[in-house]
Amino acid sequence: MGRRILFLGPPGAGKGTQAARLARALGVPHISTGDMLRQAVSEGTELGKRADAIMKAGDLVPDDLVVAMVQERLGKEDAACGYLLDGFPRNVTQAEALDAATGGTAVEVTILLDVSEDELVARLLSRAGELGRADDNEDTIRTRQRIYREETEPLIGYYPARGVSVIPIDGLGTIEDVFARIVSSLAEEDG
Ligand code: AMP
Asked: Is 12 in the pocket of ligand 1 (CB under 6 A)?
């Protein structure tokens, strides 16, 4: 079953967890630009060297670098029958570049995971304690929330204006609860 799904939502909403589960359930690759960039950093590639400090500060890696990375990934065979995009596009420039590269067919449906900002900061700080991600401290978390509001949130209007529906999902609750909401909303959308 081919599906091209985009996950949107503020940092800490649980996007990564839900996207990984849904990708597994649908049998499509989970394409997370954050994961790809963290891997580039850990491997010390040219891209990783350029991205490292930017990511630690919670800022966005330059659009041209990320767009090229995603285009290469989408060209791989496993993405031919659908994929789940997580963390990309992050702004309108990236969305336009993706549309230009694919004739506007890259995203069929968007899932918006919604959680209040106070809950997000609490979750991200507790994740910092557990995983020790370099970009999980309070200043960086606030920066990432601000960038989300300013740069990423406009995509919530961008896609519907192009005939791609955005399905809002309440991100509060257990991982299982939220996952069940996503699955039933997608089924309804297909309905
Ligand atoms: P994430 O795991 O999606 O929260 O991404 C972690 C960090 O990687 C972000 O704070 C950015 O620094 C960088 N990043 C991930 N995806 C993108 C993107 N599409 N454009 C620019 N920077 C990105």
From this structure: no
